[in-house]
Amino acid sequence: MARKFKSINDYERHLSNKWGIGDGESYKPWFTAKDVKNNKAFRKEITGLKVPRKHHLLSALEYYLFLIMDFRHDVVDIREQFPLFPLSLSRKIALTLGVEHPKVIGTKTPTPFVMTTDLLVTFRTPESFRYVAFCVKPEGELCKPSILKKIEIERVWWESIGVTFKIFIGNQQAKTQSHNILWATDIHRHGLNEHLNPFMSEAAQLVPEGKISKRGLCDTFVEQFQLDAIDAINLLRLLIGRKIIEVDLSQNQLDKSSTITVTKNINFRRELANVSGY
């Protein structure tokens, strides 16, 4: 059931129930998929690899970025739909910038709307941790003055507390990478891999480097471990998803491709840094 977000009392009630508070498994996003009333709107719940809780993504672009960040070796937490509290700070920033603060639509008394950031990502660094706040918007939205005003409030809010703020617009490479990451990790996210875990170490030794036939490799798994065809392809997915072998994730739709390219010393961090908007 969708919660109400029409008054200050609603906000206080959600805060008292710990929405938008915490980190790791204890974090509860300010908005969830259930709070979106438009049945045609994009809504997705997915269990994270870094933090095994349900994450709530409210656009396809958010979903792409989440999958990419969730697969990074240096990401330790992802908090979606992160509220910009206190409300007084975002209102003060709007006043200083000379722009109107977002308001709740359809109420008799104008009520300021609690702004949120799409993804707040925590990265592990050699010294400690760093945080990056991502505003996720299609490129076409960035020409709208109303959208730009909201983004500017958001940017100043984060930079005022020393957090890096970035805009992610996505591109075809991001879509391809996220598709391949989901294919490789989905079985692990759903906990369906336990019966295949004993084969993973030996299976990795059977995978050569370079461009190889998926069918040929899976036939080897079938013969070596007495698996059926489905378990053989799932074993390959696990090897990729658990990063026991590294493959070219920019290759179009690994699930449909007849080949995969197993790479040596792939600089995954650099590849993700090249994704537009990061």
Describe this structure in words.
This protein is an alpha+beta fold and 278 residues long. The chain folds into two domains: 8-168, 3-Layer(aba) Sandwich (Trna Endonuclease, Chain: A, domain 1); 172-273, Arc Repressor Mutant, subunit A (Orthogonal Bundle), CATH 1.10.10. It contains nine helices and eight strands. The strands form three sheets. Strands 3-4-5-6 form a four-stranded mixed sheet, with helices on both faces. A two-stranded antiparallel ribbon has the order 1-2. A hairpin with a 4-residue loop joins β4 and β5. The chain is elongated and about 70 Å long. Residues 265-278 have low confidence and may be disordered.
Secondary structure topology:
Layout: H1 8-16, E1 44-47, E2 54-57, H2 60-71, E3 75-83, H3 87-97, E4 116-124, E5 129-136, H4 145-160, E6 164-168, H5 172-189, H6 200-205, E7 210-213, H7 214-225, H8 229-241, E8 259-262, H9 268-273
Parallel strand pairs: 5-6
Antiparallel strand pairs: 1-2, 3-4, 4-5, 7-8
Helix pairs in contact: 2-5, 3-4, 5-8, 7-8
Structural class label: alpha+beta
- The count of strands amounts to 8
Query: Would you identify the regions where 5 or more consecutive residues have pLDDT less than 50?
Result: 265-278
Q: Can you tell me the CATH class of the largest domain?
A: Alpha Beta
Portion of residues in beta strands equals: 15-25%
Query: Helicity range of the residues?
Result: 25-40%
Task: Work out the radius of gyration.
Answer: 21 Å
What labels describe this entry?
278 residues; alpha+beta; Trna Endonuclease, Chain: A, domain 1; four-stranded mixed sheet; 37% helix; 17% strand; disordered C terminus
